[in-house]
Amino acid sequence: MVKQINILSHPVVNTQLAQLRQSTTNPKDFREGIHNISLILGIEATRDLEQETFQGQTPIGPFTGSVIKPRVGLAPILRAGIGMTDAFLTLFPSAPVYHLGLYREKVSLQPVEYYSKLPSEPPIDTCFLLDPLVATGGTARAALAMITDWGIPVSKIKLLVVLASEEGLRQVQANYPDLEIWVAAVDPHLTEKGLISPGLGDTGDRLYNTVTK
Question: Which range marks the domain in which residue 89 is found?
Answer without folding.
Answer: 5-47+70-208
